Amino acid sequence: MRERAKYVIIGNSIAAVAAIEGIRSKDKDGAITVIGEERYPAYGRPLISYYLLGATDRAHMNYRPADFYEKNGVALKTGVRAEKIDPAKKTVSLSDGGGVAYEKLLIATGSRPFEPPMEGIASVKERFRFMTMDDALALEKALSPEKRVLIVGAGLIGLKCLEGILHRVKSVAVVDLAGRILPSILDETGAGIVQRRLEEKGAEFYLSDSVTRFNGNTAHLKSGREIEFNILVTAVGVRPNIELVKEAGGKVARWICADECGRTSVPDVYAAGDCAESFDIASGTERVLALLPNANFQGRCAGINMAGGRAELKNAVAFNAIGFFGTHVFTAGAYDGECYTERSGNTYKALFFKDDRLKGFILIDLPERAGIYTMLLRESIPLSSVNFGELKHSPGWNALPSEMRRARFSREV
Questions:
Q1: Is 18 helix (H, G, I), strand (E, B) or coil?
Q2: Band of residue 372 on the pLDDT scale cut at 50, 70, 90
Q3: Confidence band (pLDDT; 50, 70, 90) for 31?
Q4: Mean pLDDT value across residues 259-269
Q5: Which of 65, 53, 62 shows the shortest CA–CA distance to 14?
Q6: Contacts of 48 (CB under 8 A, 6+ apart)
Q7: Which residues lie closer than 8 Å to 101 by C-beta, 6 or more apart?
Q8: For residue range 304-325, what is the model confidence (pLDDT) as tens digits?
């Protein structure tokens, strides 16, 4: 006998939590079931590096208080995987042999690590990924002061792993095919600043290079160099988990296709988070914005619509706020059009603008500048309507027209 729930959410993620809150803002009583493959309540995945660093503990990683699910009337199923959706019967089959029927279904299955084929990788005994709490706990058991770690991938995941473990091992080397670290969010100048900071802490980088094969604990690089290591972490990239919707006949690309309300092409099935597309206002394209704030916005929007309300997400934009050993990096949008830059020591600013709009920015150790630039970007404010010349150098509210300031401050009061 299948269980019945008015709302079913697959994936116990940030998007799922936001969807629960969105549903409850419109429907206080409808039954909600959440199916989570991981064994834990929803937690902040970006915090796993801070856990290894010792800057937080597992209790403080939970995204909501311990009684969140109970207070919101949620039946939580952890450690179980959704195997199949039957859109005709409106049921979800589970890995434990059970199932649940739904009226409205949200897919919030996130993404999984992508590991390209690398010759000899099976000969590496201690190899790990770095996306989940279980990944962090498994890696933690292997760490010790005499170990040498090799990380393949110099993106966000790889470098946060580096920060989390550098003080706990003998050495960390990072290999990446790209010519700079964090290539998806930093230009050459910004990447150089962050890389030097990491090198000062002891990290080694092998850029514009790749592993051609492993021979036990030796990595042979395309350049001919060799790296000896004890622990391997692969952090090359991720792939959205789209299979449930694809196998149910839904429209997918590299991700699950969903509209501004979160609806997929499958009736009564919604999608949110790292598995679902958003319209990026900066680039003008549909793409995955694998970011915690965007997952939150998507999830809440989908939840409201699932419960019969009306919500749309129309101002999604790539945004990253991340730190490495005290160096704070803020990036947003697309790096398109003209570029204005300022640099003083290890502080750096790059503003990208086109067609009378701010399209993106990079800020390093300038956290106080992010607010107004984010507003200009998210609200697509014409630069001709503000004193952009002043905003380039010293972003302050006085650079906005008086009527714009009054309207903004009246909304915030």
A1: helix
A2: confident
A3: very high
A4: 97
A5: 62
A6: 61, 130, 132, 133, 135, 136, 160, 164
A7: 2, 3, 4, 5, 8, 89, 90, 91, 92
A8: 999 999 999 988 888 889 999 9
| DSSP per-residue string spanning 263-281 | B-SSTTEEE-STTB-EEET
Q: Supply the DSSP string of 36-56, one letter for each residue.
A: ESSSSS-B-GGGHHHHHHTS-
User: Any idea what the Cα angle at residue 218 is, between residues 217 and 223, rounded to 5°?
Assistant: 155
Of 380, 148, 186, 406, nearest in space to 279 by CA: 380
Write the CB contacts of 241 (distance below 8 Å, at least 6 apart in sequence).
Answer: 109, 110, 111, 112, 275
* CA–CA separation, 312 and 214 (whole Å): 48
pTM metric for this prediction:
0.91
Q: Please give the single-letter amino acid code of residue 318.
A: A
Three-state secondary structure along 328-351? EEEEEECCCCEEEEEEECCEEEEE
pLDDT band at 1 (very low <50, low <70, confident <90, very high): very low
Sequence letter at residue 276? A
CA distances from 183 to 153, 297, 356, 366 (A): 11, 26, 26, 20
Burial per residue of 367-404, b for 16 or more beta-carbon CB atoms within 10 angstroms, e otherwise? eebbebbbbbbbeebebeebebeebbeebeeebbeeee
The residue-averaged pLDDT of 225-234 equals 98
- Cβ atoms 257, 173 nearer than 8 A: no
Fill in the DSSP letter of residue 307: T
Beta strand pairing status for 91-94 and 211-215?
unpaired
Q: How far is CA 361 from CA 137, 196, 337, 369, 412, in A?
A: 35, 21, 11, 10, 25
Tell me which residue has tokens 């990446």: 176
Using 50, 70 and 90 to split pLDDT, how confident is the model at 408?
Answer: low
CA distances from 319 to 49, 61, 310, 397 (A): 19, 21, 25, 21
Q: Are strands 111-114 and 237-240 parallel, antiparallel or unpaired?
A: antiparallel
Report d(CA 235, CA 128) in Å as an integer: 9
Mean pLDDT, range 206-223, rounded to an integer: 97
* Distance, CA of 226 to CA of 223 (rounded, Å): 9
Would you say residue 394 has pLDDT above 80? Answer: no
